[in-house]
Amino acid sequence: MTKTKISFGLLLAGAALIYGCSSKKDTATSNTNTNPTPSGGNTSTGGTPATGGTPATGGNAVGGAATGGTGGSSGGMSATGGAVGVAPDATGHCPRRSLKHTDDMLCYCQPASLTMCMDGCVDPQIDADHCGSCTTPCPATAECNAGTCSATPTVAVPAAAGCDSMRLALDSAGTLYWTDKAHGTVMSQAAGGQPVMIATAQMAPTVIKVGGTNVFWLNSTTNEIMKAPTAGGAATALVTVTSMMLDGGGTSDIGGFTLSADGMTLYYSTGKTIMQIPTAGGTATEVGHEDSGFPKGLAVDAMGTLMAYPADINGDVDIMHIMAGTPAVCASMDSTTATNSNCGRAGRSQGSLNLEDIFIVNGVVYWANQGQVLSSDAANPPGVYDTVASGSADASKVTAMTIQGTTVYFADDTGLVLKAPLMTGAMTTKLARGQKDMTTLAGVSSIAASDTMIYWASPTCEILSVPAQ
Questions:
Q1: Which sign does the torsion angle of CA 317, 322, 327, 328 carry?
Q2: Contact 134, 115 (CB under 8 A)
Q3: How many other β-carbons are positioned within 10 Å of the β-carbon of residue 439?
Q4: In this structure, are residues 284 and 243 in contact, taking their beta carbons and an 8 Å threshold?
Q5: What rounded mean pLDDT belongs to the chain?
Q6: d(CA 224, CA 166)
Q7: I want to staple 121 with a disulfide (CB 3.0 to 4.6 A). Which of 80, 97, 150, 301 is the partner?
Q8: 25 pLDDT exceeds 60?
Q9: Which of 228, 368, 264 is nearest to 308 (CA)?
Q10: Which of 147, 121, 117 is nearest to 132 (CA)?
């Protein structure tokens, strides 16, 4: 078999020809494909090889894209097919994601489905620096999906100097609400409008929810859940908890809260216990408690019968049945002090839970652990769970998550913002990249979505947005 040898040095010198990688015997892996035929790629037709260029014998590339050729692949991408390798550089190194074959000492893309560009082998369908072709980079914060760059995020709300973190919420009219922890403010902004101040001098406000005509938020340093009219007016404390140490470690601090679908009831976690209180004010009553873990973020189903949460310390994801006058008990499997009562376990001993974001949609509970979005039946969890979607292969945690309709939006700690349909093993779409502060290592702290827009709080406290795609 005649092999084409191409100098990697010429490739790095900026030659317009970018050679394609194809299947070839790899001595190291003993994978053999004879006379490979391109599949799934955009095979060039009518291309004219440059003078002296010789397509590899045995390859089935038609009209190889060479310098000066016509009809070849555009944008510096070589035609797929043809056993074409490149020579190592002067130090004997191959381009990235390629290996030297011992039979001819040339470099070939691994896997062979990748495309050889001047800076190495890439997948132009998903590579944001080579999106659709070797010479088409996406903007710095845009991503590449199916060879096309995503929309570039725009700044919906500029950052204020001295930022810490922000949390977001949207109402049914598309008005955006947010807390600014460092500046102690709560604000809103209607679509296309200007920011409106709702409250100032708040004590490290974090979690924020909107229900009916009121907005609620957690003052984290004073353990108060505040309430204010969305149209403007004085903020008042709906819930106040005294911080104290608990037996077995931990404190009684408020871990999170949520609202019923009608906005009439507020649920909150304090220490190991979950409580409920009318949003109009009144007496708080117990929904249930954990034996060893500390419930954090909460989710209630549309009927107000199920309460789900991730628990700190033990890493469990539990679901309480809300029953008037009968508090649930969620006990660890190795508990010697309590047994489960009106409680199901969706996940046990999760390794890197997102403790703030959890949802129940159409009888299914969704949460995030490590770099994945997971799901289980909410009413009767079977003890095993499904993977809905995954972030970057390098992700170790989902930093923010929300669900709108039948889509989950989430961000991971590599700086990606993604979306996926609510189904097992869903294909993810990358909405943005570069959402990580490499100095502080902070990532996206909150995401909110409507049917038309997606918003997230960047690590530099800008609120960025892209249209729903």
A1: negative
A2: yes
A3: 7
A4: no
A5: 85
A6: 17
A7: 97
A8: no
A9: 368
A10: 147
